[in-house]
Fold Zinc finger CCHC domain-containing protein 17.
Amino acid sequence: MEPLPELYAIFQGEVATVTEYGAFIKIPGCRKQGLVHKTHMSSCRVDKPSEIVDVGDKVWVKLIGKEMKDDKLKLSLSMKVVNQGTGKDLDPNNVSLDQDERKKRMFRDYTSQKITLEAVLNTVCKKCGCKGHFAKECFVQPGGTKYSLIPEEDEEEVAAAGYERDEKTSLADDSSKKRKK
């Protein structure tokens, strides 16, 4: 078996191929190649690795991971923790690598959590009598159109029955106003 560099060792390698997700680097002294993922090319966001490196470029890299997958040894490399001019280690205690790993593990998906605003939804305005807002937020003018929140599907039947009742009472109010004149 070929001698591989130790974990967290820094060496200068040559770019073998560039893909849309990173670059493969030839490791000196053996036939193996390691991948520098585009997230490990620079401390800034990299959209196209071909804008950073070209085939044949010499780059300083740090070996940050070894993994056996499908009977193949996969090597992970990083360029962002090594000064590309001098080859000096910018992260000698591997702090930023640990932080990157924590960021990956701590991602949570909050899309399934539903936010309910029952405190406001269940209120009735004292000024206009509509649901969903307070009197201080009411924008209805005297004698103007009343607006309220659109009810949920299960509340539509109840709201429809209430709307028909409101129409009947408003028609009765209009007829009583006409009689008074």
The longest strand covers residues 58-69. Residues 153-180 form the longest helix (28 residues).
